[in-house]
Known about the structure:
Blueprint: E1 4-9, E2 39-40, E3 49-55, H1 58-65, E4 73-80, H2 85-93, E5 96-97, E6 100-101, E7 106-110, E8 130-137, H3 144-151, E9 156-164, E10 167-168, E11 177-180
Amino acid sequence: xxxxxxxxxxxxxxxxxxDVGSDTARATLSDYVQVPGVYPAGRxxxxxxxxxxxxxxxxxxxxxxxxxxxxxxxxxxQVEGEPDAASLSALRKGVLLKDGMTRPAEVKQIDPPELWPxxxxxxxxxxxxxxxxxxxxxxxxxxxxxxxxxxxxxxTLRLVRWRIGDWALDGIPQGAWQEVRV
Length: 182
């Protein structure tokens, strides 16, 4: 039976088990997950937090990570500025990035979620408002959510992936993991 691990990746942790090519030691998955034979199904940027799935099953890994299967990924995104109808509409229609149009996203403004503190904290500026969006995408380009929000004038301050398909972070503290049945 395939193993599937739901890991709540902290900010600053690489989505790999070793850090190659860096002069300074950076945190990796091996600092948190000591389960032999599992590998990430997809990636989550070093400066992003939240759900990262790990499995020992190559077919399951491909199904989770491959955009052809269109698994929805839900992100909670703290952005600089207040979205207007035009910026939300653009995200819903798809945004033109340097590597082409994105697929349409589902987006709504949400109340600030109750999350763990981030280390380092997100910078706060009295003169610039911020807000939270829930953004659902079904593809996974490099730094896609950050590039999409920036393209509509809402730079990302904090990015937390909360859900991939049927799997969510519910009840998993930052830096912890939980194995689930597949």
